[in-house]
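#structure-requests
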Amino acid sequence: MDSWYATAKELEARGESYVLATVIRAVAPTSGKPGDKAVVTEEGVVHGWIGGSCAEPTIKKEAKLAIADGACRVVNITPEPNVANDREGLVVVPMTCYSGGEIEIYLEPHRAKRELVVFGNSPVAQALLELAIAVGYKVTSVDTTERPPLEGAKVITSLDDVELVRPDEAAIVVATHGVFDEDAIARSVELSPSYLGVVASPRRFSSLGGIMQRRGIPPETWAAVDGPAGIDIGATTPQEIAVSVIAAITARRESVSIHTQRSTQAPKEQAPKPVIEEAIGTEAIGIEAKGHCCHD
């Protein structure tokens, strides 16, 4: 078995990102030949062969960028980098070796699955697990009750055992519906995920805000929590709510601004809000602007 292939399987099993680099064109003199392959890890370690000192440093640099943006690219290392070329996805880099030669290497990023941790044992939690797995998340279910475990994901029964590998890329959704809301939210805040959402009615979420601040969560931290979780699409079923939550997570990850109106189920003491713009990922999500149907 080629070393690059074995390395790729090991990295996938450990949930780590990598780039598969393949030589697709070479003009002599080059040590890399068409068909040569290598795996480049997040740390810049090269397993396999795509060329020596003329190619490897450039490929390490471009592989890091490919993991960051998730985009494939062709890297052309050439002694004539200033020659016009409008090929889409082509990165042209000067050949630094005196011997000359030219080589093109295709970089294919394989990014680790993003983490989604779902607290709770409810129909919404089950729907979230199923949808998140379908769209490619690495999903963990957290449930401290004695209910039968939800299907399809790794199950953790102790809050202290919940960890995130990459907090800045991870999402957490609390869908406990009053069973262990406060402890679940407190643990989630400690983990500092990129996205934290709470599935609840507007009134329950507002009540939780006061409770959590009394437990020591700063107002600015609570203001960044998406609650009631999800984009308002008029969701009523667990599956529809799951769609709205995954959409909100995706929008925040991609820094997409969304427009939403949430007034139909706002608490009575609050006046309905007009259409507002929520800049997910850059501004706090207003409690009053939420309102799809969720159980307390």
